[in-house]
Amino acid sequence: MWVDAIMAMGVNHKTAPVEIREQLTFSGDCQTTIRQLKEIPGCDECYFLSTCNRVEILFVSREQENTARAVRQFLFGHTRLTDAEIDRHSYFYRGIPAIDHLFRVAASLDSMIVGEPQILGQLKQAYRDATEEQSTGTILNRLLHKAFSVAKRVRTETNIGGGAASISFAAVQLARKIFGELKGKKVMLIGAGEMAELAAEHLITQGIDHVTVANRTLERAATLARTFNGSAISLPEVVGRLEEVDIVISSTGATDLILRRDDVKPLMRQRRNRPLFLIDIAVPRDLDPKLNDLENIYLYDIDDLKNVVEVNKSERTKEAASAERIVEEEVLKFGQWLENMEVSPTIAAIRKKGETIKAQELAKTLASLDHLSAKEKKAVEALAASIVNKMLHDPMLCLKANCRPEEKRQKLDLTRKLFNLDPPSPPAPRDTAGR
Length: 435
Known about the structure:
The protein is α/β, with parallel strands linked by helices and 435 residues long. The protein has helices spanning 2-5, 18-21, 30-38, 64-76, 83-89, 96-106, 118-132, 138-157, 167-179, 194-205, 218-227, 238-241, 261-270, 302-367, 374-400, 405-418, and strands at residues 6-12, 45-50, 54-60, 91-94, 186-190, 210-215, 231-234, 247-250, 276-280, 297-301. Helices cover 55% and strands 12% of the residues.
């Protein structure tokens, strides 16, 4: 059955630590890897996905066991992993579980952060790579497009992507609560930490007007500022520039406070008490906790942001239950489509046999009725066609009816026997040994 021909094999952040995942690197780009996969005997269709959290191969093969062994060798053969380690750190799905796995990946139910949107873009890029190498066919094309539509449905019908699920995005969520509209606001980065940089990237997508980067090393500040089309300053200039900005994100490695309450208090009069949003991602802290005592200053540290993330993760977990139901429903629908693919060749074979018998019998009958007019011959042909169509109508409906996969297979096997669609196997040679 076609459903059992679909297989998925790989590793992800749940099954393997990073030291295992990093061994699954392939020379060249993804398209080179796909070309190598296509050369595996029995690999009729294939698709390759590689991200920082997962490496997996989705493939279709009628020669299931042999091809699965060859794909496993391709995936792990260049690593230092033993067979036992491969078994422990990898996954292999066949049939409906493979379809379910792909849909869950696309819907971000299998991601490190449930609901994150990046994985869908990575899936689509991997699909583009596969189509450019013409490694997908009827099955994978339909399956992957369905995976994309499942992801869209999950995003539309649930709030699984709502709320901040990372420290950097939590900072943006809090900024929006304070300012509402972020368009036109100015942000200052103190230090060049990765989380601060990510937060700035998220803020830019919200329409932030300008980014100022302050760092102990002005050259490093200038390099980072260029990525945001911003400006660079040195750390001693920070206090003097606070009047100009609306949001400050601090992430230095300093052992003492960078900004104190008494440094900022005089500036609030110059700012005419415009709100100032301070985000302290540093450990130990960069910003004086007493800043929160000043009017129109809103200070959040790393623990505050983590609390926001945990609350949102809890909400996403609730939404994930609804998403799981959507995936389950779509898996069933795709399974039915695959079953119909199995039915189609049998229906075509029955129709062909009916047409062949009709043509043969008409030829014999009309040969002995040469006195009939052309109109009468057409009437006889129409009668024969009608009889064949009506005789085949109920068997066709029976085959197309929805039922359990096991029942579908039984109906197919019985129908093919009843209509004698499969040629008999040649008799096995007699064993004459010892005679």
